[in-house]
Amino acid sequence: MSKGAIVVLAGTESREGVGRVANALVTAREFKEAGDEVVLLFDGAGTQWIGELLDEQHKYHRAFDRVRDVVTGACSYCAEAYGVRDTVEQAGIPLLDEYAHHPSIRRLVDEGYSVVTF
Hints:
6 helices, globular
């Protein structure tokens, strides 16, 4: 069984960011459907995606819904810096502050996850 940690870093401002979040969602879904351990987290500008993907009219809302159960959190520091802390909290997504107010990527590696960033 594989263990994958999918980290969304891409922001919402560009077509590239849209492509990267779409690829993150499909990768998380692939791990999930294969029965692998998978976690999806949002860091940096990627924290902005949570509010976007919760919008039922968004092109990738359904893709997000399919993997919502593997979302482990969003960076506490970055959610604040990008002005989306309230949105993340209202979505019920944990704010991660494991290392200097950020998620611990080292912990994921230590736990045997392959970390893939988008």
